[in-house]
Write a structure and sequence with these properties.
Layout (H helix, E strand, L loop, with lengths): L3 E5 L4 H12 L3 E6 L18 E5 L14 E4 L6 H4 L3 H22 L2 E7 L26 H21 L3 E6 L2 E2 L10 H10 L4 E4 L5 E3 L1 E2 H12 L9 E3 L4 E3 H12 L5 E4 L14 H7 L7 H15 L1
Parallel strand pairs: 1-2, 1-4, 2-3, 4-5, 5-6, 6-11, 7-10, 8-13
Antiparallel strand pairs: 9-12
Length: about 325
């Protein structure tokens, strides 16, 4: 059955893939984005779809939608450190005030809202892997705190609206996601490594290269978001959505060098403050409640991402 759906952050990396998938399934989508970090280029494949409406709007400002709304996917927030640290007050306002505006809209429209949180709420984790009952280890005043604490506060706000007003919420914690449409120059490791490798430039590794991340291909991520949104078993989360296959930054760089046949060499630089040493999701809850787990292995996903950036440059 076709639904009327809002996607905030629709011009972003994950938001544009989600919007495209929803349209392909026959839904009507209102995409909202202020284009602070999103791009109109990400909308090209579906901008003329008769079921799609794009609104350039900052979610810090109140949102007025005349139509009935069934679902809201709330993804709008700068996610790369280079962006969210540029204006930390703006990041905090987007996370809290923006989320409040979307929760108010969901309450008014009697719509289900899925809040896309982040693995960054776990901070630099002491427990490994990270499960949803872990409260995290976050520096509340460090350079990353505007994003980490903003997301934590928005989770708290979502549950407050659920408990106090009965708003139908879903909360997911997204771990590192990669794929086509990632922005160039935003400092995130996968596009950084790929672009440096394609240009045969030195690959920049921060710290020793022994720190780990777990990378989920965007198609798997979208399946997880939709499974959480559409579950009708009363499960509101939070739930981890990510790939538990852990890899060091050095191994990631070496894999990308091999896949691109690059002549790049590794170079090492100081690790940024509060950068987590290990990051890996425990997805037991997603498997149990959503019957979801990732299916695309890292090399397959990386090759698709490499092909995208080859076309871009």
């Amino acid at each position: 059955m076709s639904k009327q759906i809002i996607v905030t952050g629709a011009a972003g990396f994950i938001g544009s893939h989600l919007t495209e998938r929803l349209l392909n399934e026959g839904h009507k989508v209102i995409g909202i984005d202020n284009l602070q970090t999103g791009s109109r280029d990400n909308l090209k494949s579906f901008i003329d779809d008769k079921n799609f409406v794009f609104i350039e709007h900052d979610i810090e400002d109140s949102i007025k939608i005349g139509d009935e709304i069934d679902q809201i996917y709330h993804l709008a927030c700068p996610a790369a450190p280079i962006h969210y640290q540029k204006d930390p007050i703006k990041t905090l306002r987007t996370a809290f005030i923006g989320t409040k505006n979307l929760l108010e809209l969901a309450w008014k429209k009697d719509a289900r809202i899925l809040y896309v949180s982040t693995s960054e709420i776990y901070g630099s984790p002491i427990e490994h892997p990270q499960h949803e009952q872990y409260w995290g280890n976050v520096n509340p005043i460090g350079p990353r705190s505007c994003y980490d604490e903003g997301k934590r506060a928005a989770e708290s706000l979502s549950f407050a609206y659920h408990n106090q007003h009965g708003v139908d919420i879903r909360v997911v914690r997204v771990f590192n996601t990669y794929g086509p449409r990632m922005a160039q120059g935003d400092g995130r490791v996968v596009p950084n490594f790929i672009l440096q490798a394609l240009k045969n430039e030195p690959i920049t590794i921060y710290g020793t290269g022994d720190q780990t991340r777990s990378f989920c291909y965007v198609e798997d991520n979208i399946r997880g978001l939709m499974a959480m949104m559409n579950n009708d078993n009363g499960f509101v989360g939070p739930v981890n959505i990510g790939n538990p296959a852990e890899i060091t930054m050095r191994s990631l760089a070496e894999t990308i060098i091999r896949l691109t046949n690059s002549k790049s060499k590794l170079t090492y630089h100081p690790l940024p403050q509060d950068d987590p040493h290990r990051r890996k999701p425990d997805i037991s809850l997603a498997k149990d409640k959503l019957k979801w787990e990732p299916s695309i292995d890292l090399e397959t996903g990386l090759q698709k991402t490499i092909n995208y950036f080859k076309d871009k440059i």
